[in-house]
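Lecture notes, continued. The same structure-token format from the folding unit now serves as the input rather than the output. Read the line below as a description of shape only.
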């Protein structure tokens, strides 16, 4: 509880009409104080005028809370406070999929057989990008995953990074596009694997709530030694607890090789091969692999479990310290260090754990990259069993869980009982299940996600309750004779954030479902009046009166892939930087690679004009391709890109905005 709350939430709000439309230019964000027993208390609202925002520009500012329109409040407006927001507005007009065919083929061809200096189109894209590097990496990863070419993309970026790196100690240390893409790829492709590997130890640490501290100065400052005994006793107990947690985590990680998604193992093998080819020292390839799988995946998940959906709540102060110390030890192991850093000598009691863990790290990495290249592809971050793309996903991965108020109706029986009962719901990639209590005792009911046809919010006025949403289930396949033909679950969340979380999670779980309903009823059927509360249609089986919003979810790593949207985003980056492209590349095209003077860093793949062996800059053949051939490749890619940009620009100009 605090008077200065922080949410750190990110929401994507689709806008279907032009922002210039007066009825569509205002974004309202309402703030409520949650009340367990009564209605949530209104605290104020923020009004953002979207027409004042420049497209693509990020705004970070304080907005004063206002009173609701048409309402009277005793509190003065100046007492409502302010809300700090980061707001960014994008406009993307997505064309019909056939129109992107040539652009998609160009981007896919760009990562096929690139030179060690990188793919020219990706080099150019990085030069002209207006979005931040992480957002661009996220878009590229989603685009190439959807088209089954994620390994060639990563291979292209990693090869260029390795080629440009002189000292092994600097390898993947910066926020390069290669590092960002590999980060996003792991989060998109291996989140369920991360959950099964680390969730047991994370839950244990949260539930134990042990006081763990290795720094004597921290113990003295907290006064814990005075209340609980000597400092040495606290250190001894802390070492014991920490050793147990680290053992749980490392045993789970080291035993997870076969559970690791095939596509991730292939990417790590490719990384190993590219690094070992230039830096054959035995430690460098190991450190390159652990730098991603440990330092950029396992360790951040331990430090911030909520960010990786391992927990629904943030850690308290004691738990946060335990997580931090656990992550420090595992990070040190990942760096293949058998002794703590000199600046953190208080970690020395864990030296024995490090000495025993580093050899196991080497063995784990060796087994992890020992996999045959079978060309496995991936199409979606969330797949149902069976797993034809080699992601290695589990048969049961919990995507969301928590308590909801349930109101149930089935078939043509109408709404039925007016009672709302609290039930504990659990959503996995297999089924939506609910239990009478959080302890999962009593009779449970489960519905396969393949049966779900609608996941939509319910109008507040339908049941005179807020934060309601509905899940329409149509059983299929071999079912019991008593199973109704349609089941509608009307569910109420505690607040709007919980409502959005559940709606988003269920939509993602149903991503591969066929025959999802295109329409739904935002109200309910009233059996006494024999009509729907929303559209007044008389037949219970009447098709819905509103279009479904299946593709709208909270933006995170598990969002459904939308290759057409990603193609449009990449295209818009090229189009916005077209003037820069012309300035950098037109001279090269006009002179056919014979221009004198300083070499353009873009045309040389972003590298210095000098050869890597310190020579005088003469043409050097690297990987079977000379510098002249690279220049010709760049010129050809640039010309082809310009033609396709012109075609797409023409099609965009023909779009009628309504």
């Amino acid at each position: 509880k605090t008077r200065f709350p922080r949410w750190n939430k990110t929401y994507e709000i689709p806008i279907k009409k032009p922002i210039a439309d007066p009825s569509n230019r205002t974004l309202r964000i309402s703030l409520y104080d949650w009340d367990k027993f009564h209605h949530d208390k209104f605290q104020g609202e923020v009004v953002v005028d979207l027409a004042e925002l420049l497209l693509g520009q990020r705004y970070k500012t304080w907005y004063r809370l206002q009173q609701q329109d048409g309402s009277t409040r005793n509190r003065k407006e100046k007492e409502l406070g302010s809300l700090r927001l980061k707001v960014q507005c994008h406009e993307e007009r997505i064309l019909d999929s056939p129109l992107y065919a040539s652009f998609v083929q160009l981007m896919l061809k760009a990562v096929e057989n690139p030179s060690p200096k990188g793919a020219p189109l990706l080099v150019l894209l990085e030069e002209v990008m207006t979005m931040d590097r992480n957002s661009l990496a996220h878009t590229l990863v989603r685009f190439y995953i959807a088209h089954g070419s994620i390994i060639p993309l990563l291979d292209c970026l990693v090869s260029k990074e390795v080629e440009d790196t002189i000292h092994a100690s600097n390898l993947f240390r910066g926020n390069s596009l290669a590092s960002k893409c590999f980060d996003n790829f792991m989060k998109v492709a291996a989140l369920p694997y991360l959950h099964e590997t680390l969730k047991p130890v994370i839950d244990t640490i949260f539930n134990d709530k042990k006081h763990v501290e290795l720094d004597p100065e921290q113990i003295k400052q907290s006064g814990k030694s005075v209340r609980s005994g000597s400092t040495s006793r606290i250190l001894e107990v802390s070492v014991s607890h920490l050793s147990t947690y680290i053992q749980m985590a490392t045993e789970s990680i080291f035993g997870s090789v076969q559970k690791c998604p095939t596509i991730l193992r292939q990417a790590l093998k490719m990384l190993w091969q590219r690094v070992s080819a230039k830096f054959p020292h035995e430690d460098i390839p190991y450190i390159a692999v652990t730098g991603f799988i440990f330092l950029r995946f396992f360790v951040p998940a331990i430090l911030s479990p909520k960010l990786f959906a391992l927990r629904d709540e943030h850690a308290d102060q004691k738990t946060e310290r335990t997580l931090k110390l656990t992550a420090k030890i595992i990070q040190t192991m990942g760096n293949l260090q058998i002794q703590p850093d000199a600046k953190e000598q208080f970690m020395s009691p864990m030296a024995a754990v490090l000495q025993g863990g580093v050899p196991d790290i080497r063995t784990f990495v060796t087994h992890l990259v020992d996999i045959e290249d079978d060309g496995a592809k991936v199409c979606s971050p969330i797949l149902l069993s069976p797993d034809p793309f080699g992601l290695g996903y589990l048969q049961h991965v919990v995507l969301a869980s928590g308590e909801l108020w349930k109101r149930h109706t089935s078939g043509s029986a109408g709404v039925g009982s007016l009672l709302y009962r609290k039930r504990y719901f659990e959503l996995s990639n297999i089924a939506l299940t609910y239990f009478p209590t959080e302890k999962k005792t009593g009779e449970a009911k489960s519905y396969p996600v393949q049966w779900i046809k609608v996941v939509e919010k319910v109008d507040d006025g339908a049941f005179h309750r807020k934060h309601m949403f509905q899940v329409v289930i149509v059983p299929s396949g071999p079912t019991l004779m008593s199973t109704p033909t349609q089941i509608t679950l009307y569910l109420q969340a505690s607040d709007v954030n919980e409502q959005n979380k559940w709606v988003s999670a269920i939509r993602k779980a149903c991503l591969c479902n066929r025959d999802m309903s295109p329409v739904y009823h935002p109200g309910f059927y009233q059996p006494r009046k024999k009509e729907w509360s929303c559209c007044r249609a008389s037949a219970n089986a009447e098709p819905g009166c509103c279009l479904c919003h299946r593709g709208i979810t909270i933006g995170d790593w598990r969002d459904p892939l939308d290759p057409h949207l990603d193609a449009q985003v990449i295209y818009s980056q090229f189009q916005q930087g077209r003037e820069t492209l012309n300035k950098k590349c037109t001279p090269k095209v006009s002179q056919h690679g014979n221009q004198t003077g300083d070499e353009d860093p873009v045309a040389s793949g972003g590298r210095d004009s000098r050869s890597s062996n310190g020579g005088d800059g003469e043409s050097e053949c690297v990987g079977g391709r000379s510098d002249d051939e690279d220049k010709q490749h760049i010129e050809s890619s640039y010309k082809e890109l310009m033609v396709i940009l012109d075609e797409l620009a023409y099609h965009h100009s023909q779009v009628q905005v309504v």
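Point for the exam: The first strand starts at residue 26 and ends at 33.
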